[in-house]
Amino acid sequence: MNKKKITYLFGAGASCGTLENPSLPLVKNIPKRIHDIANILSKEEYRVGLDYPPGLEHIKSGQPGYSFYDHQKHLIEALKWLMRESYNHASIDTYAKKLTITNKNLLKHLKVVLSCYFILEQAFCSVDKRYDAFFASLLDRNGSFPDHVRILSWNYDYQFELAFSHYSGSNQLSFNQDKLNINHTSSLPVRRSLNFGIDKLNGTTALKVVEEEDYLFISDIIPGNEKYVIEKVVESYALATAINHGEPLLSFAWESIDRLENRVNNLIYDTEVLVVIGYSFPFFNREVDRAIIGKMTDLERVYFQDLNPQLPMQRFKAIRSDLPQQCYVNWSEVEQFLLPGEL
Q1: Rounded to two decimals, what is the model's pTM?
Q2: Phi-psi region of 250 (alpha: psi -120 to 50; beta: other; left: phi over 0)
């Protein structure tokens, strides 16, 4: 008997944890958390030294009179700027959409600063425990994923990779991304598969050090060593801003909808069951959501897992109005992600 093809659509609510075990902040709480991270960086115990680390002397030569600590102070000010703009707009994504139209240079700066924030945030917070139970259910006794399950995620974070590291035995993000068959806008080469796979629609939080072909990922850094994480983030921020040698891998889906459609089509075209977890279908994602969900021509049932599932269901209907009411299932229990065996 063939199993129905299941696609999960993850939003920010899928990485915030629960009331008892909070993890990453929801969109509305991000400005405050950016403020908190900026304050942490300002503490004396987390202050980096004046001297540049070995191998970064070329930054100093391009910034005469500028110490390594000056880059940390610059990052703190950049985080405060991001916090202010977050308060002044409905969300960071809204502001990014605005910059896509008005100021692409500032958009890149936003991506760099936002990447630094999320790398630091994930150094100080825990992994959402629901991902662990999710993988425990998906994986068979041989450690293989089911062929009939695929995942789309609007989140920039590493929750999938960090949770899976406990199963793979590796803290290397690139290793875990290969095992999870993760794609995002900057994935080269693109991982093609008709079976299990994850696509990060907004890219992933990371800074690529252009000259070294290296990446800064929190899962590649020793857990619990926050001072070391801060030093590495300041290094990457200095490379990205002082000499333009750091490239953010974070992106936004609306920047290239055609490329995104081509990338995710193999994952979702034969979807029969869609499970929406913690995603509210915001209006500024409407074009992308319509492009993706419109490709699901075999869709039979849609689950909305959320504390208030009526909201995403109503917004979904504005995107896809051809499904009968009996196709929709609201699910307000959020202690665990809905699992394939429950669908």
Answers
A1: 0.89
A2: beta
